[in-house]
Amino acid sequence: MSKQYPFFTSPYFSTFRLTQNIIMKVLLFLLAPLFTLVVSAQQIPTDYLTADFHKGRRDAFRAEMPANSVAVLFSNPVRNRANDVDYIYHQDPDFHYLTGYNEPHAVLLIFSSLQTTPDGNTYNELIFVQERNARAEQWNGRRLGVAGTIATLGFESAYNGSEFAALDINFKSFDKVMFYNFNNDIRDTREGADLFDLVKSFKNKIGFPSNYNASRMQVYALIQSAPVEETDKIMTLLDRYAKMDPSLIEDPFITDFIAAAKSGTDQKILDRAKTAVNMTLNQYNFDLEGLDRIMNGLRETKLPEEMALLRKAIEVSAVGQLEVMKAMHPGMSETEVQGVHEYVYKKYGAEYEGYPSIVGGGNNGCILHYIENNKPELGEDLVLMDLGAEYHGYTADVTRTIPANGVFSPEQKAIYEIVYNAQEAGIAASVVGAPFSAPGAAASKVVAQGLISLGLIKEASEARKYFPHGTSHYLGLDVHDKGTYGPFKANTVITVEPGIYIPEGSDCDPKWWGIAVRIEDDILISDQGPVLLSYMAPRSVAAIEAAMKLPSPLDAFSLPTLE
Description:
Elements: H1 11-42, H2 51-63, E1 69-74, E2 80-82, E3 85-86, H3 93-99, E4 107-116, E5 122-129, H4 134-140, H5 145-153, E6 158-160, E7 176-178, H6 195-206, H7 214-225, H8 231-244, H9 252-262, H10 267-281, E8 286-287, H11 290-300, H12 304-327, H13 334-347, E9 352-353, E10 358-361, E11 382-387, E12 389-391, E13 394-395, E14 398-403, H14 410-428, H15 438-453, E15 492-496, E16 499-502, E17 515-518, E18 521-526, E19 529-532, H16 541-547
Parallel strand pairs: 1-7, 5-6, 7-8
Antiparallel strand pairs: 1-4, 2-3, 4-5, 9-12, 10-11, 11-14, 12-13, 15-18, 16-17, 18-19
Helix pairs in contact: 1-5, 2-3, 7-8, 7-10, 9-10, 12-13, 14-15
């Protein structure tokens, strides 16, 4: 049997609070129908991920944890827009994935094994949430509170956030304390136990030093484990870290290691450096990489429940592209196009856009992350539209490029066909077992050959100036979702998004200037081959031109003229 590490050492919490929890469970059993009625009365969607799903994800996470470890995850901070107006709150994807709790000011603790209190009660997870507050809820909406968290999210041990500071937690008893490094922009609000207070309490409990440098500790860990024959490899990694944090090369222990490497791996100097970093590392049991390692693996592949929501987000986004094609005309503005897309999202119940919408007409499309979307009239432009709906946390990412007048010009069509063929090659390469780079390699080859055939470049190596970005990323709870970036696994969703961008002033015939084309689709990696999930959005030249001839519900829609 594994050793038990008591978490609650305070008699108050070991007796009173756990007794209170038992009473709470009895009350919740009796009042569960009431919670159901409240949810029903609010008429909220019923297709959210279930409490069982989130619990299953916590169990899967726990199975990957090192022995005798604890993971601590915090909710996302509230971001202030101006004065008393905050940005719309969006939960941290990892926190949502593991809990289903979508309010701020919360902390989750997951233990690798059962913990035992002095009076013999056991637990393996704890969550601390916002306390119910009638006045605050009048302004900002109903909170789950402890009772709601237990009743609707399936936690057995839930507490008010204000109780976190009072817990006598001995984090030193764990071999590993896993958490993400802290943001330095968490606002201290008027809430009694806000995220600022939770993080502050946690830092105090683990003895987190004010001058802690995560990059330095990562380099120390590399030095600690580096055999002599891998010194050159460590030096390469160190150079990469030093570019992000130049102060690293001033560290005396790292300086010793560099000296050892430059001297031909002098073992005495290397041993001295290792001894020094060992003493430093042994002061802490922090693990700032373990959470990412586990979450990357869990979130890379999607369970059926996730796929249902992700498919919905993708289909909504694809329909948005189709409806814009039907409604598009030269007199439309970029802003109007964005509005049509996002109206479709809301019509289908998508809560958010997965990322800032991109609608770039003409040369604006050459700006990869163009979000101003304020060109007043599209005219004869080719319009690049990169948008994605977020449905219950899961985000689509679909891009189409269409002519505002409904017909591709010869130059626009020539570039479009290259990108289309490149995407076809990239999709075909998206198979189980292929390296993550396979779609990009296949697409880049086609783009380079196409640009050479048009005389835009002379050598394949020049293609990068017109195709400057990667071809794929994972998709899920984030638009650039977590993953291992290893060989493709079944039930993984990626994007395939080649593009060609020829900004005004490029070193080529001006007839190509201002043409920007990106085609992006969402692809399920399956044992049967790649599955095009965003198929509802027309993709070929012929299909796009045909769709743009279809009638639109907006054809008869007009608004009064404003002065």
